[in-house]
Amino acid sequence: MGSSDFVTLFFLVAAVLIFFQLRSVLGRRTGNEKSPFETLAQREAAKAPGADDGKVVTLQRRDEANAEDRFAAIDAYAPVGTPLNDQLRELLRHDATFTPKEFLNGAKIAYEMIVLAYAEDDRKTLKGLLSREVFEGFESAIADRESRGETMKSTFVGIEKADITHALAKDNEEQITVRILSQLITATYDKSGALVDGDAEAVADVNDVWTFARDVRSRDPNWKLIATEAEQ
Q1: Could you tell me where this protein is found in the cell (predicted)?
Q2: What is the per-residue pLDDT across 31-57, written as a single tens digit (0 to 9) for each?
Q3: What gap in Å lies between CA 43 and CA 166, rounded to an integer?
């Protein structure tokens, strides 16, 4: 093998190694990105005691979950003897990985994603986070807005408060209802750009009651929004 051939081979090997290093650092989008609930669970697992920085972290198996600590987390969230405490305890018996804090963190992220996706006519994002019935309602409202040539601009200011109000574990389905107080700036404009609804500068308080659910038999472990209600 000549010296030029050796140099060519050296650079080819180096290029392959660099490619694989970059791919491991940057990652690849596959179109199957996780929901807010699942990515949150992975982050929490990575922060758990005993997790080694820089190493792959395996999520704790359900049968390995520390049930005592999780029941204590429920008692800290909802007083013992209250209906909500009983409901959350029953849900934990169905799902050994459940904690109120982790669920609410995921619900807040999902809430922001859904609100902004609706304003931006992002049907793809909505379809992955909503049940079929709720998606049809959102899609119908978006289509109606588009038929009038209107556009919506929303700025998500933040969530002031989010509380679990009800939980249900029955057969193979889990449901959790959350009351959310958020702050938004929302304005709708017609074809000419004139404001037809909302306020482009004022921050509005929004009270929503959303119910999330998941089928424990499904291969998809993610929660989806199955019902919405606005409180006055």
Answers
A1: Membrane
A2: 444 567 665 555 555 555 544 444 443
A3: 26
Query: What is the value of pTM for the model shown?
Result: 0.73
Interatomic CA distance for residues 217 and 171, integer angstroms:
10
Alpha-carbon gap, residue 190 to 174, rounded angstroms: 41
> Which residues of the chain have a pLDDT value below 50?
3, 6-33, 50-65
Task: Report the C-alpha gap between 174 and 176 in whole angstroms.
Answer: 7
CA nearest to 155, candidates 210, 203, 123, 205? 203
Choose among 173, 190, 180, 182: nearest CA to 224: 173
Cα 64 from Cα 67, distance rounded (Å): 8
∠ CA 182-197-124, nearest 5°, is 65
CA 210 – CA 75 distance, rounded (Å): 23
